[in-house]
């Protein structure tokens, strides 16, 4: 909070996020009662569904095919290194056995602590685990916007916030976060969502919440939405972040044009969260799935700008990840298996973006992601005299570095890895032009 804490808190943030930023690729899982109406996770708000009319989904909820071990295998096979599950979304339904509410999965027909099973299964596959927790709560009677059993939800505008009542909600919210941080072992990520209007920062009693969080799980990393939303915001973008500004920025459905930097132009940790179709929660009518090729390109784009990609799946009411998502993830995984070295532990190359694709880099290894169909050899602009050898990353085969400036090739979407750029002796375009 204070000016003097800025530098050391940024150092601590750098330290905490180091492993996270090496991982680069994670799975977001939006799952809850809204999988039954299957019209997205905002359905209760968008359609102004009363608590009364939303209640049947609670009574019916019974995801018999929920098998988080399968989810974990899917994520791992896709090349993902971590996963974040919605422990509670805006509708207030808890996928964990909270002592502070009856509105939880253990009280439904399924009777299971879905969060606990998720955590155990993903950890068993060697993946890091995170929980999404909604700051908004359309079910809690003291959260502004609450609608009673017989009436549609009130609009924010129509509800005058009562500070005493809101404090009751905050006790509940803090209590649930404490439960998640106390009863479920080591968590790697806490993903709060989200701040809006005057409900931001200290309105959530954010300093208090963060002190609890850091004391219970010192290594956990936190997104920036105790202050911001999907469009950004908050002091994480300054050189003097607060204790609740978070460890990473969370641009939503966008990959920022030049990555994410603070006001001094310093790169800050960030993770773009992106849906596979056009919804977070399961939406039966939404068949607009991205192709594996698009996903790979978006992942490369994030890494080339020092960011992570948190790719979403929305399992259905039975507990299964949609077939279309599984197919895309399997294809992405096949690519990752052969080309993952150009993603994990990689970041910005410090070179201009080439016409034919993107560079990523890890130490003295430069990865050239050939994303355009090439006519003839590609031009390694900006690398004059610095490339020692070129290999196809997928199979290790030699690529011919041709004079004066090209690498010969190429299979479409092939990838080139370079070693020790400084040892390359061929003249390259910048030299040729002079
Ligand atoms: C939020 C949720 O509302 C959404 O359901 C999903 O969970 C997503 C990952 O996060 O979406 C937001 C949050 C904040 C903004 C926009 C969408 N915002 O501030 O612009």
Automatic annotation (TrEMBL):
UniProt family annotation: Belongs to the glycosyl hydrolase 29 family.
Protein name (database record): alpha-L-fucosidase
Key words of the record: Glycosidase, Hydrolase, Signal
Its job: Alpha-L-fucosidase is responsible for hydrolyzing the alpha-1,6-linked fucose joined to the reducing-end N-acetylglucosamine of the carbohydrate moieties of glycoproteins.
Pfam families given in the database record: Alpha_L_fucos
GO MF assignments: alpha-L-fucosidase activity
One GO CC annotation: lysosome
Entry annotated with the keyword Hydrolase: yes
Domain Glycoside hydrolase family 29 N-terminal, chain residue ranges per copy: 16-341
PANTHER family assigned to the protein according to its UniProt record, in alphabetical order: ALPHA-L-FUCOSIDASE, ALPHA-L-FUCOSIDASE-RELATED
GO BP term, pick one: glycoside catabolic process
EC number assigned by the record: 3.2.1.51
Site keyed May be important for catalysis: positions: 273
């Amino acid at each position: 909070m204070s000016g003097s804490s800025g530098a050391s808190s940024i150092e601590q943030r750098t330290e905490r996020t180091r492993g996270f930023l090496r991982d680069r690729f994670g799975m977001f899982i939006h799952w809850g009662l809204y999988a039954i109406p299957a019209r997205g996770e905002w359905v209760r708000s968008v359609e102004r569904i009363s608590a009364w009319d939303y209640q049947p989904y609670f009574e019916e909820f019974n995801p018999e095919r929920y098998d988080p071990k399968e989810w974990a295998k899917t994520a791992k096979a896709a090349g993902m290194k971590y996963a974040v599950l919605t422990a509670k979304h805006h509708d207030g339904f808890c996928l964990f056995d909270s002592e502070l509410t009856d509105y939880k999965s253990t009280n439904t027909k399924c009777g299971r602590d879905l969060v606990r099973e998720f955590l155990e299964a993903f950890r068993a596959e060697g993946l890091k685990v995170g929980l999404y927790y909604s700051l908004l709560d359309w079910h809690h009677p003291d959260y502004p916007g609450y609608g009673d059993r017989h009436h549609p939800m009130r609009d924010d505008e129509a509800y005058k916030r009562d500070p005493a009542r809101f404090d009751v909600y905050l006790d509940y919210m803090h209590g649930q976060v404490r439960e998640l941080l106390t009863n479920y072992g080591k968590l790697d990520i806490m993903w709060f969502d989200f701040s809006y209007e005057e409900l931001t920062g200290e309105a959530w009693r954010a300093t208090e919440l963060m002190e609890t969080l850091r004391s219970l799980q010192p290594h956990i990393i936190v997104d920036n939405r105790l202050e911001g939303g999907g469009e950004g915001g908050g002091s994480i973008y300054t050189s003097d972040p607060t204790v609740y500004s978070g460890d990473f920025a969370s641009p939503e459905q966008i990959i920022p044009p030049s990555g994410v930097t603070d006001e001094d132009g310093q790169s800050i940790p960030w993770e773009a969260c992106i849906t596979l179709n056009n919804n977070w929660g399961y939406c039966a009518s939404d068949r607009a799935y991205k192709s594996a090729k698009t996903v790979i390109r978006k992942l490369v784009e994030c890494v080339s700008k020092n960011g992570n990609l948190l790719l979403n799946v929305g399992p259905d009411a039975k507990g299964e990840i949609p077939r279309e998502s599984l197919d895309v993830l399997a294809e992405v995984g096949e690519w990752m298996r052969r080309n993952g070295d150009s993603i994990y532990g990689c970041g910005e190359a410090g070179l201009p973006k080439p016409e034919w694709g993107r560079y990523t880099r890890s130490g003295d290894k430069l990865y050239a992601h050939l994303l355009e169909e090439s006519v003839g050899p590609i031009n390694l602009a900006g690398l004059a005299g610095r490339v020692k050898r070129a290999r196809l990353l997928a199979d290790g085969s030699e690529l011919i570095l041709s004079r004066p400036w090209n690498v010969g090739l190429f299979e479409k979407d092939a990838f080139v890895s370079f070693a020790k750029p400084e040892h390359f002796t061929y003249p390259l375009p910048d030299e040729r032009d002079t």
